Amino acid sequence: MKVNPARTGGFTRSTPRYRWIVLGIATFAQAAAGFFMQGMGAMGIHLQRDLSLSTAQLGLLFSAAGAVPLIGLLVAGELLDRYNERWVLGIGACVVAAALIVGSTAPGYVSLLLVLLVVGAGYCTVQPGGSKSVASWFDASQRGFAMGVRQAGLPLGGALAAAVLPFLAGAFGWRSTFVVGGLVALLGAGVFMGFYRRPPAQAGPQDGRPRASLESQLRARLGMLREPSTVKIMLSGTSLISVQYGVLVLTVLYLHDTTALGAGPAALVLVAAQGAGVAGRVCLAAWSDRARFGRYGCVMTCMAAVIAGMTALMTPLGQSPAAACILFIWLGFFGFGWYGPWVTYVTESAPPGKTGFALGLAMAVNQIAIVLAPPVVGLLKDLTHSFTPAWGLLVVLTAVALAVTARGERRGIGRGAHGASPASRGR
């Protein structure tokens, strides 16, 4: 009797090749769900003008979508450890789509903040859900490359959004960008729910596993916070995600105010920086599959490169239009590209059976920086009428994280902990 692939979850003898389909749809879902939020920075001039916003208020719009995930990512991680990521991620992306479409009718700034809170609640499932789906299909020798490709979806979606949304805002008003963002997110949800299947070894029901007591589950999860790898994950993640969102919020404004570039050309530089981030997430993550000093060594390289790039922006070099554009592309490559090796390091450091929670925990800590960084750098700019304090704060945060975690990494290599390449450990 001929087997119907639809009744077997799509698994046939070509299952090993299906992982590339999974990678493609997870990347597309990531790009689609993050399309609008990653493109908001390119609309900064339009939003400030049409809604009469200060730079701090503009930064708060970015933060609104990141407030709910402070708790929501932990909940999403637990759901992913218990249920099929196909539905957890898909339903979350549908919430993003519905909220954005409703947001197109928002009467003003406060209602927009509330809409973006709901967007953040839906988006909680997308990052850890997509990461877990890809990690479960690829072994350690290819996991870094696969995770890098998947994580490239975020800056890829951002680059496309930065190219499209300002044009829509200028031609049809800012409300049209919410509608388009919602439709793109809905398309991503439909593709993921329609095509994603778990690996055959995980395709069975999850409820058959014995449940540990609530006390032992809490103890195990709190114990993860004491692990050296968790400390490195949190410090590096919060510093680099602050850089990423600082670049998103300030790039167009900086180029417009400091180097006298027009709004259109400045937005194109942000597109180029996002494109560099796409390349960075793939290249740096693939490099981490083979690097002698492991995944975290690649993350430390990104921190050092970010410090150098932002320091250069604070010198007279940063006032030259050509030099500033090159520096923002550099910051795009390393300031966005770090996420590929970083999230792979998170999945490989997680205890067995707790990958979803580990991803949710790491990303929830990052959300603190996502919520705080945009309004803080915007407020610094408003108070000082200069971008230098904002760049300086981001440099200091990253330098402290690099110094602390580099010391711990050297100690770990000396003991043989986390020093080998994850690829070699997985073979």
UniProtKB/TrEMBL annotation:
UniProt KW keywords: Membrane, Transmembrane, Transmembrane helix
Enumerate the InterPro entries for this protein. MFS, MFS-Transporter, MFS_dom, MFS_trans_sf
Q: Does the keyword Membrane apply?
A: yes
Stretches assigned to the Major facilitator superfamily (MFS) profile domain: 22-413
PROSITE patterns recorded: MFS
As for membrane topology, the entry says:
Multi-pass membrane protein
Q: What is its main location?
A: membrane
Compartments (UniProt record)? Cell membrane
Q: Where is the signal peptide?
A: none
Instruction: List membrane-spanning regions.
Output: 20-40, 60-80, 87-103, 109-126, 152-172, 178-196, 233-255, 261-284, 296-315, 321-345, 357-377, 389-406
Which PANTHER family does this entry report, sorted A to Z?
BLL3282 PROTEIN
Please report the name of this protein according to its UniProt entry. MFS family arabinose efflux permease
Q: Which organism is it from?
A: Nonomuraea africana
| Native organism taxonomy | Bacteria, Bacillati, Actinomycetota, Actinomycetes, Streptosporangiales
